[in-house]
Amino acid sequence: MFVLDKKEGIPFYVKIREALRAEIEGGNLKRGQKLPSEEELANQYGVSRMTVRQGIADLIDEGLVYRRHGVGTFVAFPHVERDHSRLTNFFETASKEGISVQARLLDLEVSPARQRIAKALDIAEGDLIIRIKTLRYADDVPVTLHEAYVPHVLFVKLLEEDLETQHLWTLYERYGYRVKRAVQKLEAREADHELAVLLQIEEGAPILFKERVIYAEDGTPVEFTYCYNRGDRYSLTVTLER
Amino acid sequence: MFVLDKKEGIPFYVKIREALRAEIEGGNLKRGQKLPSEEELANQYGVSRMTVRQGIADLIDEGLVYRRHGVGTFVAFPHVERDHSRLTNFFETASKEGISVQARLLDLEVSPARQRIAKALDIAEGDLIIRIKTLRYADDVPVTLHEAYVPHVLFVKLLEEDLETQHLWTLYERYGYRVKRAVQKLEAREADHELAVLLQIEEGAPILFKERVIYAEDGTPVEFTYCYNRGDRYSLTVTLER
DNA sequence: GATATCTAGACGTATAGACGTCTAGATTCT
DNA sequence: AGAATCTAGACGTCTATACGTCTAGATATC
């Protein structure tokens, strides 16, 4: 049995998971409907119950099904925005929605890190950082002032790149850091004079302020960003799980 | 062995998970450091390897540790705000930070659902909903105007409950709906006259506006909420993964 | 010295069985 | 009829074992 598995190179639990997913997404199993019991599935696929459970566990993580102790496993409601908790960037999101995107580089400099930034990036105060200030347009309307700080030591060559057309994240990857996680703080603020001018809004207009740290796969902080978004042109959707 | 477990009522894998968490948070195991192998842990705690794996799996989900196939299990970067992608409510968050919380019920009524709300709650336009409007205080300062809509049919008895001292979520659970997921949209807005009065701020002051749908475990939408937060007193932190 | 191979250790997948606990519905008793 | 109890079925926890696969470092080879 085990050898058969290896021949195809796909673990049983993955096969079962995908089989169940297909049943659900294909509509054979509808919202709220009970899956066969773990015991039944085990017999049906000729595997042990633990293996079935492992497959189902993945589907639970995805929110596709849920278990009720003593009752059974059921298909969950397939709500559209299941994956809005995923980290995406401005360019990805906008282009997926058919919005044209541009960036204008306002400022680019290397300087010593202030305390706040050094702490966020886990470097020493005074270590060199690259500061990248861009103004971002959606359909030719200025929407976001973006101020990113990255450790100079990680990305020395970054200064030679074209920062208007390439997204920072793809550059990070080129230097070996794959973006994995972002922790971001959101606030509502008022536009000051500079913002008002840049974003072509009134002074005091609402701004969705976002402060975030981006981490690579291994936990290295690669970017600290202040992001000022026009309140009337920008909203953010996230999904949270309990 | 198994009976011992039951005597204390806590599964082994939970004990092991918490023991490891304590080691990590207590600083005995530092960032990047290798945990004892699963084998070793199994011996150490007198359980089987699968049980250890189950405990570790939870910590991986939390992002506290990560596994490397063929190498070992390691402590991940302990970034402070790790669990901010978890869904929590106002009361939980605030009380964890030692802030006193109060709610004042402003309005409670049953009415037919408007189109926007019906769609979000997956009910028919005109179906009855309960509208619960509360003003929430943190340390006696009004911070949030909270306007929740719940399907009347799900929670008929809700009207008899004390909505100022009990949190809605605990009430949902009492009626058999466990809160699982929230999809929320965030925007920056200006305070209108009503908000300005209620939140004791200037008209036009920035508001962090949050619109969200809360889903139960089985995917049923149980609550649709408009949430107006004082920009100067409220910020929201989320973690996103790629 | 550089390269290829081997190997120990660690995680990955899987089994078959056992007992615990919970839920809903059936049964029994009042 | 209503309440208390019982029970079958389903998920929850756990074991002891086995073999697969991967990684890093040691060893051997060129």
Question: How would you describe this structure in keywords?
Answer:
homodimer; 242 residues; alpha+beta; Arc Repressor Mutant, subunit A; Chorismate lyase; 2 domains; 6-stranded antiparallel beta sheet; two-stranded antiparallel ribbon; 8 helices; 9 strands; 29% helix; elongated; disordered N terminus; DNA-binding
Describe the structure.
2 copies of one chain form a homodimer. Chain A is an alpha+beta fold and 242 residues long. Chain A folds into 2 domains: 2-75, Winged helix-like DNA-binding domain superfamily/Winged helix DNA-binding domain (Arc Repressor Mutant, subunit A), CATH 1.10.10; 90-230, Chorismate lyase. In chain A, 29% of the residues lie in helices and 33% in strands. Chain A contains 8 helices and 9 strands. The first copy, chain A, has helices at residues 2-8, 12-25, 38-45, 49-62, 90-96, 115-121, 168-174, 193-199, and strands spanning 65-68, 72-75, 101-112, 128-138, 141-151, 179-190, 206-216, 221-230, 236-241. Chain A has a 6-stranded antiparallel β-sheet. In chain A, strands 1-2 form a two-stranded antiparallel sheet. In chain A, helix 2 packs across helix 4 and helix 3 (38-45) crosses helix 4 (49-62). Chain A is elongated, with a radius of gyration of 24 Å. The model of chain A is unreliable at 1-7 (pLDDT under 50). At the A-B interface, strand 6, strand 7 and strand 9 of A face strand 6, strand 7 and strand 9 of B. Strand 6 (179-190) of chain A pairs antiparallel with strand 9 (236-241) of chain B, so a sheet runs across the interface. Chain B binds a DNA duplex (30 and 30 nucleotides) through residues 1-3, 5-6, 11-13, 37-39, 47-51, 53-54, 67-73.
